[in-house]
Amino acid sequence: MNHEAKLLLGIVAGFLAAGSITGAILKSRVTGDAGRKVVENLVSRVNAWWIMCAVFGGALMIGPVATVVMFALTSFLALREFITLTPTRRGDHRALFWAFFIITPLHYWTLATEWYGLFVILIPVYAFLFIPMRNALAGDTERFLERTAKIQWGLMVAVYFASHAPALLILRIPGYEGRGALLLFFLVFVVQVSDVFQYVWGKLCGRTKLAPHVSPSKTVEGLVGGGLSACVAGAAIWWATPFTLVQAAGMSAVIVLMGFFGGLVMSAVKRDRGVKDYGDIIPGHGGVFDRIDSLCFAAPVFFHIVRWCFEA
Amino acid sequence: MTASLIVFLARLLTGVRARWSGELPGSRQSVFFANHTSNLDFVLLWASMPPALRAKTRPVAAADYWRNGGIRQRLADDVFRAVLIERHRVTKATNPLAPMLGALADGDSLIIFPEGTRNPGGEPGEFKPGLFHIARACPSVDFVPVFIENLNRVLPKGEILPVPVLCSVHFGAPLPRIADETKAAFLARAREALLALRPL
Fold this sequence. Notes:
The structure holds 2 protein chains of 2 kinds. Chain A is mostly helical. Chain A has 10 helices and no strands. Chain A folds into 3 domains: 1-62; 65-162; 165-312, no CATH class. Chain A is 75% helix and 0% strand. Chain B is an alpha/beta fold. Chain B has one domain (2-195): Glycerol-3-phosphate (1)-acyltransferase (3-Layer(aba) Sandwich). The longest helix of chain B is centred in the first third of the chain and has 13 residues, at 2-14.
């Protein structure tokens, strides 16, 4: 492990330790049922963060294949949550089998073998064509377009978009060889810091609701405060990226903006289906999709900017 | 070993969570009766139980399907310890109640699907009378309704390959016992208790 990775690991562990200590202090001071509930939620959130960071950090340290496998499993779980919420019919069964067990593994396989040409078109072109073909063969025409579109959408967001995060590992940036894991860390770090600090700023001084019908917890103050915090955090680790300080801040701003819209769009889907979370697999956070919705929207844009501007 | 693998695969496909609305079942012997929508029903119900409870709970399954001499039979006998009953050629000698009552007499708990056959989607069908006869024969055993949610989407009738969809298994409170209840009234009450567990 190189020097930069050790330093980043230390920073994350420091953040988490600060969260755990805050939780422990609050737990000993809090009174009343409502307050206790908030603190319990905070503690379980921080505990889940420890586990998520250990899994992500562990995969990054083992190597690119482990990282790709970890993201493949994450996509699988997110797609499972998405399909559960979608009222599929019997006629979708075979198409869904393909989506989960053939298209998703094949897509991540193109990443593991660094076959960029197929990676970018497998889902948007071939899976897009194949899913309606399979569904048409199954013969159920009830809400056909809607059902087909939902499977395609699930694949695009949970698999295709999410996979653009580990895809950073296959970029060849001059002077930055062998350090793709740091770039992936930068993306995930900024997305998650932005999520956490939007929540914190929103709780502390959120007044003006941004989109009350879609996501009542999103406020202008939260977005601005959280976004600026994430830009500072991203700029502060510019030394681990191929960017200059100013570029790192700018990249962070793009990530924050896309991440915000990812959360907003996926909230709209949840409202439409009448649920608050995609699942309850991660205590305090909800489902896997609740945790990666911002990442899904930020990853492809960040990937293509880096590819255009920095790849040889 | 095989059992852990099956539980792991069931979790991977369905992320199954058990939700207990009654008290956590501990020492009391029970008959768990559930809606039947898929061949995987009892595997999922069995996998969702705490290991200690799983170890003393036996699913009731159709002999014609599971007693085929191959891997299915080995799973039924060694892993699930299934109570296999005759569905079709029922005579006095193959009375399906006998093996169930035998297992209960040994102190085991049972998983049964009182609709008798799979009912894809929609409302659970009418209950077969076996449940009533067992209840009358074993007055000290708890009858616990269990609603299995979403599993018909994982493996619909007629499909071989499963698809991952999140499932929940809702365990209700044991049915209160009512003295001198008629067969029809008991079966209707049991079915109502099962339907009441359906999430909105």
